Amino acid sequence: MTAVMWFRRDLRLADNPALVDAAADGEVLPLFVLDPALWGPSGLPRKLYLGDSLRALDGALRDGPRNTGGLQVVRGDPVRRVVLAAREVGATRVHVAADFGPYGSARDRAVEQALAEHGIELVRTGSPYAVAPGRVTKADGAPYAVFTPFSRAWTDHGWRPPIDAPNRVTYLTLQETAEVPDRERPDALSLPQAGEAAAVRRWRTFLDERIDRYQDDRDKPGVAGTSQMSVHLKWGEIHPRTMLADLARRRSRGAATYRTELAWREFYADVLHHRPETAREYLRGEYAAMAYDEPGDQLDRWRRGRTGFPIVDAGMRQLQQTGWMHNRVRMIVASFLVKDLHVEWQHGARHFMQHLVDGDLASNQHSWQWTAGCGTDAAPYFRVFNPVSQGRKFDPDGAYVRRWVPELADVADPHEPVDPIVDHAEERREALARWERIRS
Ligand SMILES: Cc1cc2nc3c(=O)[nH]c(=O)nc-3n(C[C@H](O)[C@H](O)[C@H](O)COP(=O)(O)OP(=O)(O)OC[C@H]3O[C@@H](n4cnc5c(N)ncnc54)[C@H](O)[C@@H]3O)c2cc1C
Fold first, then answer.
1. Best probe residue, ligand 1, of 46, 214, 230 (max atoms within 8 Å of C-beta)
2. What atom of ligand 1 comes closest to residue 229's alpha carbon?
3. CA 162, CA 243: separation in Å to the nearest integer?
4. How far apart are the CA of 231 and the centre of ligand 1, in A?
5. What is the C-alpha separation between 50 and 59, in angstroms, rounded?
6. Which atom of ligand 1 is nearest to the CA of 358?
7. I need a labelling partner for 190 at 20 to 30 A (CA). Which of 112, 232, 290, 365 fits?
8. CATH architecture of residue range(s) 285-439
9. Distance (Å, rounded) from C-alpha 417 to C-alpha 99?
10. How remote is the CA of residue 214 from the centroid of ligand 1, in Å?
11. What is the atom index within ligand 1 of the atom nearest the CA of 268?
């Protein structure tokens, strides 16, 4: 028997239940489809990172005990491409990890239908989450709208232990495949190393060196206190279940805090699964009626890291140059866009999705909505971040700002705004006035 393993956001061999299922069928075609609908709108950092990750998976497949032609990459609409590939190798099943995003789940239904017309089955096994979205519900079956009770129920629900990579699989090839694009890399762009081996290395180093201080260091952008695992989780180079199993062997506060952060990722996936329209629309509909400004030059300055507020500019430049931004700073720059510049969150979320290598629709859109005050369990709207005092509090020695805003490297007080594009106190009042209008 022959099966297709269609890789999407699970670019790894270990702890991959869909791959284990495919291998149980017999010979396996390891397939990846470059889908222009997803590939097209991505920014350069995301494209480069995905390209690296695909090359790493290709290398891992070629290194296996049965020498293979590696990952078989094709380009085009998955509905057509997956059917063609399955038919070419005579597969009776196509195995995937279930996708719970709005685009992915609709795409999978279309592919499933097209395959069925040829007597081929689409088999969904596992997901990119420890607990699949939709599984954790209240006693009456309703989804959770608030994080803390979700997180408790998620822990009670539990998850399976990780599984090993299948061995002795014979991998098949296609007659014609596409090149994984490798664009020119600007010197100024420095991306993390991609692939399963890099993900495991980074995770082990974090466990060995930083996890026990995580609860204290995670809010300090000038300190390497977080794991930077988000990009590996995004592309499924490691499964969260593997990480949760390692965390369960530790009893530190850091490990407990880290587990809660992973729960946020699962919570947002669950919220988006139940409310797919909130990828674009306000979770709390009343906020759509608030007065916002048309995006213009100020949005552009925010994007380029030229607002005159040091911590905001540092974050936006870190994003531009590395495809990643520290969580505390993501909150500060998001709050600044919505509450100081009065621009709707969707503009900021779109910019993030283009540039973040870890850009994930559920985590990104819902973290934006949370910060903007219109999301789940939201910080109350009247709590407006002051970018200067936030900078002083979380980056007290200015190490973060000095690193990313080189023109401030040698000034005495790097958090003092320089030619700020707005007056924060004034814009805070304005934001609250606009909010009062939708409340009454
Ligand atoms: C405006 C805004 C946009 C964001 N966009 C994204 C995004 O597109 N993709 C993304 O993965 N995260 C996003 N986050 C959440 C968070 O900032 C990143 O997950 C985190 O900074 C990644 O770095 P890390 O792996 O070092 O985090 P760590 O502190 O090491 O956290 C461990 C893991 O927990 C998860 N996690 C942590 N915080 C959150 C959170 N608030 N929501 C969901 N998961 C979380 C991530 O998977 C992360 O890798 C966003 C946050 C904000 C405020």
1. 230
2. 25
3. 9
4. 9
5. 14
6. 9
7. 365
8. Orthogonal Bundle (1.10)
9. 44
10. 14
11. 43
Domain assignments of the chain as residue spans, ordered by start? 2-127, 128-162+197-274, 285-439
Q: Considering only the top CATH level, what class is 2-127?
A: alpha beta
Identity of residue 237: E
Whether 22 and 3 have beta carbons less than 8 Å apart is answered as yes
> What is the pTM for the complete model shown?
0.97
Contacts of 297 (CB under 8 A, 6+ apart): none
Ligand 1 geometric centre to CA of 368 (Å): 11
Sequence-distant (6+) residues with CB within 8 A of 380 are 373
**pLDDT tens for the 440 residues of the chain, in order:** 899 999 999 999 999 999 999 999 889 999 999 999 988 778 889 999 999 999 999 999 998 766 688 999 999 999 999 999 999 999 999 999 999 999 999 999 999 999 999 999 999 999 999 999 999 999 999 999 999 999 999 999 999 999 999 988 999 999 999 998 888 889 889 999 999 999 999 999 999 999 999 999 999 999 999 999 999 999 999 999 999 999 999 989 999 999 999 999 999 999 999 999 999 999 999 999 999 999 999 999 999 999 999 999 999 999 999 999 999 999 999 999 999 999 999 999 999 999 999 999 999 999 999 999 999 976 788 889 999 999 999 999 999 999 999 999 999 999 999 999 999 999 999 999 999 999 87
DSSP at 121: E
Q: How much distance in Å is there from the Cα of 236 to the middle of ligand 1?
A: 15
Question: Ligand 1 — pocket residues by CB below 6 A?
Answer: 218, 226-230, 233-234, 258, 261-262, 264-265, 268, 327, 330-331, 334, 352, 356, 358-360, 363-364, 367-368, 371
What CATH fold (topology level) applies to the domain 128-162+197-274?
A: 1.25.40
Q: Whose CA is nearest to atom 47 of ligand 1?
A: 230
How far is the centre of ligand 1, averaged over its atoms, from the C-alpha of 232 (Å)?
Answer: 12
352 Cα: distance to centroid of ligand 1 (angstroms)? 12
Residues sharing a CB contact under 8 Å with residue 119, sequence separation 6 or more, in sequence order: 92
**Do 128-162+197-274 and 2-127 have the same topology in CATH?**
no
- Compute, in angstroms, the gap from residue 261 CA to the centroid of ligand 1: 8
Q: Tell me how far CA of residue 179 lies from CA of 9, 54, 182, 291, in angstroms.
A: 19, 11, 9, 47
List Cβ neighbours of 285 (8 Å cut-off, separation of 6 or more). none
Task: Specify the 3-state DSSP secondary structure of 263.
Answer: helix
Which pair of structure tokens corresponds to residue 49?
A: 């990172």
